[in-house]
Amino acid sequence: MNSVISLTDIRRVFIMGDQQFEALKGVSFDVAAGEFVAIMGASGSGKSTCMNILGCLDRPTSGSYLLDGLDVGGMSSNQLADIRNNKLGFVFQGFNLLARTAAIENVELPLVYAGLHSKERRKKALTAMEQVGLTGKENNHSSQLSGGQQQRVAIARALVNNPAVILADEPTGNLDSSTSEEIMGVFSSLNKQGITIIMVTHEHDVAAHAGRQITFRDGLIISDSRKNPTAKTV
Amino acid sequence: MDFLQTLKIALRALRTNKMRSFLTMLGIIIGIAAVIAMMAVGTGASYVISQQIASIGSNIILVLPGSTTSGGLRTGSGGAQTLSSDDAKAIMAECPSVEYAAGTVRTAGQIVYGNMNWSSVIMGATPELFDIREWPVVSGRSISQQDVDGAVKVCLVGQTVADNLFGSADPVGNIIRIKKIPFTVIGVLDRKGQSPQGQDQDDAVFVPLRTAQRNLVRSQRTGVVSSIIVKAKSEQLIDKAESEIQALLNQRHRITNSKEPDFSTRNLSEILAVAEQSSKAMSLLLGAVASISLIVGGIGIMNIMLVSVTERTREIGIRMAIGAKKNDILLQFMTEAVLLTLLGGVIGIILGAGGATAVSRMLGWPTMISIQSITVAFFFSGAIGIFFGFYPAKKAAGLNPIDALRYE
């Protein structure tokens, strides 16, 4: 099985004044294409730091990170921006849609930075919105959408450029339980289509949707368990 | 990312805060409008000044008699009767840098035609005067050398005099009485307008010099003129001509170093230089005021752009997470700032031009709006946007995406 993500002995040290804080103390794991991974842990366990590194928003102090076969460690900030644009899709807890902007334009945004022409952008964005079941809501602004719908727009935005991995940071944290289920359903169905998903969460019932659970504590991985492969199809 | 998209994003950002965008632009609008209006009024004024100076004639030197002392009383400048027609002829014949020289006498008196009468300036003139002042007749003929030599009682009338005595009728061929002496009108002069001192140059009657000397002015000697008006061959020769005239007249009037000259010369290009200098000083002053207001406007733009960057930190974070490069963000905020100032500039140009036109309509002040000043104002307002937009844009582009995303 080929790995989409390969972390080897990742460390991240924050320096605040004369104090040092080691958020990640040597983390290694691989994620294969098509996996659905939930990263769990209490706050301060290092899961968010790990997520930032996975998302190429932050750089590890030491260790190597291969994303889709590319060594991300030595890249410039412009190259990282391209990686974020081409290889990654982000879904945030707070949706993070642009205000006063139509849903379809939010979905198109990554393609704008990729330099695509408007016709192609529109076509891809419409497909992505269809995938998350938002056909008909293209021209609604975020204020005219419910929380669940906003998160679907965010997922469509993460999907639109065919990323190698979708990174979701507490995607259900701002949603009620029934909407959470709905959103997890969207993630599950995307995963069944072969899309790799890594999700940070602290809720066990949300994590249960994932085929693999990695748990962090104090900057280290304390457990990495896979569900029974047959259970995945249920 | 293509520029059109950047422009769209910037336009949307400006539209979402319409009132704020407008207030931010206001500084630039006022500054640019002031620049355009002031330039228009200034250029118009200096055009009028140069027109008036040109109306006297170009490259002109005035020779005036000096003062005399009689019984301890000194007359003022021009009080003496020291210049003569012969001096004028000699200047024209002997000074190589002089093109024309014309002696004139000047008096004032009542002019009567039928039951109409009008008080005006009466000038004794030779044909050269009209060459010097570049002043043609619009009907009839001008004064000839024969008229002067024969002291013929003919005259030319200026437009103001013609209007007041003859109304719309043609004065040529009619007889008018100047100081009770009958003169035949042989021609009407073209309209000349105001002199730089604001006198109506068309309010005058011209008669042959010798006629005037004999019949209209009283003098101790024959052939006295009240001034000699000289035209130099070119602008470069004005100073040379002036010293040639001084040398010649010193010799003719037997003036040695110990004796005060009984004449003075005045160079009209000096007046022109002074007028030009004062209009330059004026533009400089207005320019300084306008640039201060533009700088203040620019600082206003910078201020609001900084606020806007802080407000939109989260948006910047989203854009960066999604794949925007530092340059994309820099360009986005720069475009916004430049768009603000350019828009302000265009509104300012329209307001300034409109204001200048309104002023010239209502108050009758001449204004000239040059393409040059509009172009300069336009590009200058763009430059303000680049200059004052750079720092806020740099700040936005330098944000760390993680912190920006977490910003509340």
Structure notes:
- The complex is a heterodimer of chains A (234) and B (408).
- Chain A is an alpha/beta fold and 234 residues long.
- In chain A, 35% of the residues lie in helices and 29% in strands.
- In chain A, the strands form two sheets. Chain A has a six-stranded mixed sheet with strand order 6-7-8-3-9-10, with helices on both faces. In chain A, strands 2-1-4-5 form a four-stranded antiparallel sheet, covered by helices on one side.
- With 408 residues, chain B is α+β, with helices and mostly antiparallel strands.
- Chain B folds into two domains: 3-52 and 274-406, no CATH class; 102-229, no CATH class.
- Chain B has 13 helices and twelve strands.
- In chain B, the strands form two sheets. A six-stranded mixed barrel of chain B has the order 4-5-10-7-9-8.
- Chains A and B meet through helix 2 and helix 3 of A and helix 1, helix 10, helix 11 and helix 13 of B.
Topology overview:
The complex is a heterodimer of chains A (234) and B (408).
Chain A: E1 3-16, E2 19-32, E3 36-40, H1 47-54, E4 62-67, E5 70-71, H2 77-87, E6 88-91, H3 103-114, H4 118-131, H5 147-159, E7 165-169, H6 177-192, E8 196-200, H7 204-207, E9 212-217, E10 220-226, H8 229-232
Parallel strand pairs in A: 3-8, 3-9, 6-7, 7-8
Antiparallel strand pairs in A: 1-2, 1-4, 4-5, 9-10
Helix pairs in contact in A: 3-4, 3-5, 4-5, 5-6
Chain B: H1 3-16, H2 18-56, E1 60-65, E2 69-70, E3 73-74, H3 85-94, E4 98-113, E5 116-125, H4 127-132, E6 137-140, H5 145-149, E7 154-157, H6 159-166, E8 175-178, E9 181-189, E10 204-208, H7 209-216, E11 227-232, H8 238-252, E12 263-267, H9 268-311, H10 313-322, H11 326-363, H12 371-397, H13 401-406
Parallel strand pairs in B: 5-10, 7-9
Antiparallel strand pairs in B: 1-11, 1-12, 2-3, 4-5, 4-8, 4-11, 6-9, 7-10, 8-9
